[in-house]
Design a protein that fits this description.
Elements (H helix, E strand, L loop, with lengths): L12 H12 L5 E7 L9 H7 L3 E7 L6 H13 L3 E4 L11 H8 L1 H9 L7 E7 L5 H9 L17 E6 L2 E5 L11 H10 L9 H15 L1 H8 L3 H4 L10 H13 L10 H14 L11
Length: about 290
């Protein structure tokens, strides 16, 4: 297992989606950006800032139930200082959704007042919903609208094209496909997105990815790691360090033994073990975890 896998991933269909989003910007008043609360900065597409120009902005932190609340509070303050309205939600159980419409109006407050001064009343706000793959954008739209308007899935690339959705007389949404950006200047950003499942696992070396995630968890959420996999100082002494080339492979071997992820002859099945670790993290079974701080 090498130390750091390089994340190379950009599929061709995203270039087409990006151009479609650029043209859609001409039609809207507000950009609603859906972020993953576990990695708010890494899950922000920098291209959206360039495309949005002077449009009003609203950030919705989805999957807030899976994130470390103390760090989420730091992110709320971070975006508030930048003058961007932020709402934390859990689309699956609709927690926090009642705060979205007030936040939309607050984000567009100047525009609404300007229209009223011109005698323009009851004009619906037209908002684009943008976000990277697998951030829960379609799940948010369906929960917010109260009906299955957008296709959902647990793999990147479910939403293939744009569609307008009328939420109520005050708001219309333009749904867009989830897009990433052509190059990660910082490989840590790519790695965090891979942890979250925003990059298709089929093009990644999941064994190395899971190993790096374990290192992060050991350094930042040691107790959660210990509780989930029953790894403690005593069990860690059962295996000779000299057998393993990296701390990652050592931890994965311990977890494999605990979970029965072994091949014939008792050899560790690293691929299966990696799947268990990534699934546990993405579903919140390890605990409430945030991958980055402001």
């Amino acid at each position: 297992m090498s130390d750091k896998p390089i994340i190379n991933w950009y599929p061709g269909h995203m270039n087409k989606a990006r151009k479609s989003m650029e043209s859609g910007m001409k039609l809207i008043d507000l950009v609603i950006e859906i972020l993953d609360a576990r990695a708010p900065l890494s899950s922000r597409n920098p291209d959206i800032d360039k495309m949005a120009g002077g449009k009003d902005r609203l950030i919705i932190m989805n999957k807030a139930d899976l994130a470390d609340k103390n760090i989420s509070d730091m992110w709320r303050d971070y975006f508030k200082e930048k003058g961007i309205e932020t709402v934390f939600i859990n689309s699956k159980n609709k927690e926090g959704l009642r705060n979205v419409m007030p936040a939309v109006k607050k984000a567009c407050e100047k525009r609404i007042k300007r229209n009223e001064a011109r005698g323009i009343k009851n004009q619906p706000i037209r908002a684009m919903v943008a976000g990277i793959p697998n951030v829960g954008k379609s799940t948010f739209i369906n929960a917010f609208c109260g009906k299955n308007m957008a296709k959902t899935g647990n793999k990147p690339g479910v939403t293939k094209g744009e569609q307008w959705i009328k939420v109520n007389p005050e708001l219309q949404l333009l749904d867009t496909p989830g897009i990433l950006w052509p190059k990660f200047e910082d490989q840590e950003v790519g790695r965090r997105l891979a942890y979250l499942g925003s990059i298709n696992d089929e093009i990644l070396v999941t064994e190395e990815l899971a190993g790096d995630l374990l290192l992060f968890l050991k350094d930042n959420y040691h107790n959660l790691l210990k509780e989930r996999y029953n790894i403690d100082d005593e069990t860690e002494t059962e295996i000779d360090d000299e057998v393993f080339s990296t701390p990652q492979s050592r931890m994965m071997d311990l977890i494999a033994r605990k979970r029965g992820c072994l091949k014939q002859g008792g050899e560790t099945d690293y691929f299966k073990t990696a799947g268990v670790i990534l699934d546990d993290f993405r579903s919140g079974k390890i605990g409430k975890i945030t991958l980055e701080r402001p």
